[in-house]
Amino acid sequence: MRTTVRRYYPKVQTKHRVRSMSSDEENASDISDSATSEFWADESARRVAENDRPPVVKGGVSPSGVPHIGNFNEVLRGAFVVRALECRDDIAGEPGQVFTSDDRDPLRRVPDTVLSPEGEVVELDAEERDELRAHLGKPYVDVPSPFADAAGAPDTWAEHFASFLREDAERLGVPVEFVSNDEMYEDGDFDQSVRTALSELERSRDVIARHQRTAGEGYVPFMPICAECGRITTTPTGVNVEDGAVDYVCDDAQLAGEYEVEGCGHRGTATLREGKLPWRFEWPAQWWTLGVGFEPFGKDHAEGSWESGVEIAREVYGVEPPEHLVYEFFLVDGGKMSASEGNVYTVSDILRYVEPEVLRYFFALDPKKQRDLSLAEIHHLVNDFDRIEDVRYGRDEPADSTERLYAERVYDDLRAPDEDPAEHEPVRPPYTFSAMVGVAGDDEARLDTLRRSGHLPEDPTETQKRDALRRVELARNWALDHDNEYAVRVLDDKPDADFDADTRTAFDELADAVESGASPDEIQNAVFETARQNDLGVGGFFSDGYRLFLGQESGPKLGPLLSALDREFVVERLRQPSDG
RNA sequence: GGGCCGGUAGCUUAGUCCGGUUAAAGCACCUGGCUCUUAACCAGGUGACCGGGGGUUCAAAUCCCCCCCGGCCCGCCA
Q1: Does the first or last residue of chain A, that is N or C, have fewer Cβ atoms within 10 Å of its Cβ?
Q2: Protein CA A37 to sugar C1' B62 (Å)
Q3: Where does the pLDDT of residue A183 fall: very low under 50, low under 70, confident under 90, or very high at 90 and above?
Q4: Which nucleotide lies at the shortest CA–C1' distance from A64?
């Protein structure tokens, strides 16, 4: 069995946290909250237990196109179920998670865009397209990566794609074992499945005919790889299960209803390891081979391959299909995610703006609901997460039973696997506020602002500093990238504005205060005083201050703002408010 | 043609499975506090015929039926 999975999570202290309450509290809670809904992952785990399925959770994707955030449904949804399984004591065996890269699938179309090794979505040029077109119909493991030349980059398309998922799974703290489908065929792991599908040919045909109109009389559930040209678009012409041999002819094929692939005409004989099962047979074969007891999958599979997969598992392979969960696809900025349209998000894109905990939280939300992921609106998600966290640490009361459920049951599963939520209570300054705190360039100024606003203890630990600075960095990235109202930008150049003599005098006096090392409050007061002393309207003088530094009429509280900026810069700007 | 999800305050949503006191939260907005101006924070407030219609019930956002609107998936391959 290949599915020995290391345990990354501290198992003990999170186990049914709710039960650690005193019995009085427990009773009270039972009464007042008897209808509290169940975390979906717990419900999934319960089904696994009740139906005596093995605690092995699988996911998997075909490595096509851009590895995007949607692919992570396959990883993270399952990860929560694994955690839920670990909390149960009625499970036989050690819970674990596998992810198959379905990398013997053929390259079916030339994508418009690919993910560069740097994680950028880039368009392929004409030459690269032609290069790829030559490989249509070959398994992804045999298609060269467009970036194979880059130092340290994987050689094959399959590995290029998988490397992102592997890296992202690690960043998100998911202990999932990656399995190459191609290697499984090569190692003979599918021998039994292939042999069974072919020896029970009539049964195979019966089942598939119920689901696929195109599967006719001569249907053979095996796709040999052409020994000459390497394409897997051949047509089987004879089966000899005894010898483990399938004859084929490499003829023309149509892929994705779009590309015409010319076969090389070669006639040959393949062993049962030199080809692959069609998807509808391959999926249940994976369940059988890997001993899968649970699998989340997207709604695209819900009607077709799942239904046929269940029947193939039972009627052809004679095994029980896993428990399952159909997840909705999410939208990106209100539309379907599409690499060619440019609205595709990767894990990296999102981790540029939010902590991994927040992204995990997104995937902990009800999988059955279609929801919109919008980076421009990501502060809402962050805010929701922060609320859950506040409730978890008793800093706030739950607003409803869902918040309570997420705080009490789910939150700890959102944290990094090497952290103990009971030990480390993160410092999490509010997101939009953090974005503005980021106007200060250096860490000390940022920490100082946070400390003064009460979002950081007077004497923070290194970890608390790290938490806070990370939040500021992420929020600042978000604000600047989207150029929204929280993107406070200090003018690099002096404003193209005229300030009258009194105003300039007041600026000059303000500069004295700043230069002398005044605190934010003192600077704030100095603004009032200098305005009055020079017979300026307070409101107008504030506006002039914002105009001078931000080029706008208003902005964050001026004292803290000026205090957060580099002192020499502020003094110089105040003394010489304009050029010429 | 079949299937899934959604339509609840200006916006984003929770609550629907398991019907039950004045339908909840965040954002936005308004008022007050922090000595006067503006990000934070604290206290409070305005704001919802719960998409429409019918039914079941003492009681419906919640259960049943029909309809309307929005989104997605499948009906090739994977």
Answers
A1: C
A2: 14
A3: very high
A4: B78
Cα separation, A11 vs A188, whole angstroms: 35
User: A72 or A400, which is more confident?
Assistant: A72
pLDDT in tens, A130-145: 999 999 999 999 999 9
How far is Cα A9 from Cα A568, in angstroms, rounded to an integer?
A: 49
Q: Going edge to edge, which strands form the sheet with A294-298?
A: A177-180, A96-101, A56-61, A294-298, A323-327
Closest CA-bearing residue to C1' of B2 = A303
- Closest nucleotide to A256: CA versus each C1': B77
Distance A331 CA to B72 C1' (A): 9
String of DSSP letters for A352-370: TTS-HHHHHHHHHS-TTS-
Tokens 């920490």 belong to which residue?
Answer: A447
Cα separation, A91 vs A230, in Å, equals 44
For the CA of A326 and the C1' of B54, the distance in angstroms is 33
Nucleotide showing the shortest C1' distance to residue A397 CA:
B25
| CA A31 / C1′ B64 distance in Å | 29
pTM of this prediction? 0.90
CB A75 within 8 A of CB A59: yes
**Which bases on strand B have an atom closer than 7 Å to a protein beta carbon?**
2-6, 12-18, 20, 24-28, 35-41, 70-78
What distance in Å separates the CA atoms of residue A534 and residue A262, rounded to the nearest whole number?
85
Report d(CA A198, CA A392) in Å as an integer.
55
- Helix A279-290 and helix A191-199: axis angle, to 10°? 130
Q: If pLDDT is split at 50, 70 and 90, which confidence band does A88 have?
A: very high
Q: Distance between CA atoms of A161 and A25, rounded to whole angstroms?
A: 50
Query: Chain-wide mean pLDDT for chain A?
Result: 87
Q: What tokens were used for A264? A: 């090389």
Strand pairing of A294-298 and A323-327? parallel
Q: H or E element: which one contains A298? A: strand A294-298
* Residues in chain A, total: 580
A97 C-beta neighbours (distance < 10 Å), count: 24
Å from the A156 CA to the B67 C1': 53
Which among A371, A379, A412, A414 has a CA at the least distance from the CA of A70?
Answer: A371
User: In 10 A of CB A556, how many CB atoms?
Assistant: 18
Q: How far is CA A55 from CA A4, A72, A317, in A?
A: 11, 20, 20
